[in-house]
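It is worth pausing here to work through a concrete case rather than discussing structure prediction in the abstract. The textbook approach is simple: state the sequence, then state the predicted structure, then interpret. We follow exactly that order.
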Amino acid sequence: MDYLIQKVSYLRGLADGLGIDESSKEGKLLLHIVDILEEFADVLDETIENQEDLEEYVTFIDEDLADVEDDIYGEDDEDDDYYYDDEEFDFDDFCDDDDCCCHCEEDFEEE
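Step two, the predicted structure:
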């Protein structure tokens, strides 16, 4: 971000070195443009700093949340709860109704 502030400072130096007349219409315009560019650079720099602070804060919150989850749920792998072996899988676990038309067996085979 410093490069942008340096470039605007360079433009300010050029404007001052050229002796731009503030009383002319063109001079007023150029000097105001440089002023606005300085303000944009400052605001952008501040926004980037705030974003970096926010990212750091969110990282801390995420780490704290992970600790709380481990305390509450234990440190087991989440995927272990949903694992099943195809050979041991029984479709009757889904549907006990012999007259059912849900076709859960067919749906599962298509996936």
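Step three, interpretation. Residues 2-81 form one domain. The mean pLDDT is 80.
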